[in-house]
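> example.struct
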């Protein structure tokens, strides 16, 4: 199994791409702030998950990188809240993106609590 086969990765990747597509409509003045931040944090979820999966033989490293992934997911949620407050996304878009982020959080949390199921020693 490779990291891209993990449900957390698949859902995290889809969320990052959904955010990318929605953020294309953000105002130009947000390019180097909100747009950049929400894209970076959402992409970092999968990037950190990939790093963690490569370190899964070492339980403490595996869990540490998984918590980094979860932290980036939490940051993404905060940027989504700002996007909603600034009216760059609709309430419906926010709810859908936030729900997807919560699903990713649950999957990451499961991995953190059950590292041995993912090849951690």
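> example.seq
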């Amino acid at each position: 199994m490779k990291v891209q086969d993990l449900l957390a990765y698949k859902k995290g990747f889809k969320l990052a791409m959904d955010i990318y597509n929605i953020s294309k409509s953000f105002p130009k003045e947000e390019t180097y702030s909100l747009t950049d931040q929400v894209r970076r944090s959402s992409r970092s979820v999968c990037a950190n998950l990939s790093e963690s999966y490569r370190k899964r033989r070492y339980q403490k490293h595996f869990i540490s990188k998984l918590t980094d992934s979860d932290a980036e997911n939490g940051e993404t949620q905060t940027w989504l809240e700002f996007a909603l407050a600034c009216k760059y996304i609709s309430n419906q878009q926010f709810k859908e993106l936030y729900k997807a982020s919560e699903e990713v959080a649950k999957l990451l949390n499961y991995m953190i609590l059950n590292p041995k199921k993912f090849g951690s020693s």
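> remarks
The first helix runs from residue 7 to 23.
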